[in-house]
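hiii, so i know i said id send this last week but things got crazy w the move. better late than never?? heres the sequnce for the chain we talked about at the cafe, plus the structure i predicted for it. fair warning i was half asleep when i ran it
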Amino acid sequence: MSERDKDTAMPDWSAYRGVLIFVEQRGGRAKSVSWQLLGEGKKLADKLEVPLKAVVIGHGVERLAQEAVCYGADTVYLCDAPELKEYRTRPYSRVMLRLIEDAKPEIVLFGATATGRDLAGAIATHLPTGLTADTTELDVEPHPSRLLLASRPAFSEKMMATILCKQYRPQMATARAGVFQALPRDASRQGEIVRIECPLKEEDIATQVLDFLEETGGVNLEEAEIIVAGGRGLGGPEAFRMLEALADALGGVVGASRAAVDAGWIKHEHQVGQTGQTVRPKLYFAIGISGAVQHTVGMSNAETIVAINRDENAPIFRIAHYGIVGDLFKIVPAITERIKARRGVGGIARAKASETA
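okay and structure toks below
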């Protein structure tokens, strides 16, 4: 074998097998991206003919270990200790590092959340290994390479880059919420739950969590089942009040395109798209949104998409399940009033209820 062949030869990673998903939780409630990654991880594991594994870390989180089985995990590693009640980088990373050393998974996946990004980065640095951030597509090559194909937007989001980790194991990636689909919950599934110990005591941890203050009044696009999103066609920030009225009538939240956010009409936390959030609601209204790729990749997985636009040739109509061509300033208020009436919030439905009473 030549020196060049030696340099490019694949190391022997035969001891590393299996796909491991980090189940992120806060206050005993799992992030939806965790179940979504289990759904995608199942596909990867089946292609590689290996088990799908999950790890649950926290305190009082035994129920989540069983939930992970219901969502597709064959084996769940459970580390339940008072020191792990709140997320802190050092204890969580030490649990993961010891688990990876013992279980030797070939692929480890995290949600691309604040916690997932922090934890994955710390682990990759200590191992060391590669880490692909904010992936939107995952696949694997078959034997003998067994490489994880982790793809994400690149070059100002004009292209997709597929990143490989050929020389190190495990292969690691964080993935955006809303991109992948969770498997249906199956309460009849059976799996193995393996308890593991926390390697640190409280006195070994330099930081302490004194309190956790939850921000109120924000928007949670990731968990929303109904999103009413507006774009450049709204013409200004005042029109978003019209969208808020529709979202309130539907029990949903307001989203926005990058153009609307860049114009300063609404805060960035409402942005859907490659540079915003990727969502998977049951119902998505795209109002005054042309349908540029930057936006559609963030919402195309919605179960039902309703587009409202004056331009009948707008690209958004190509992916919409229902399209309405016309003046959104007349259409949206009309829909809002009709929904309120049907729900008994006003109009005929409320009057009938009063008469009955």
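btw The longest strand covers residues 52-58. thought thatd interest u
miss u guys!!
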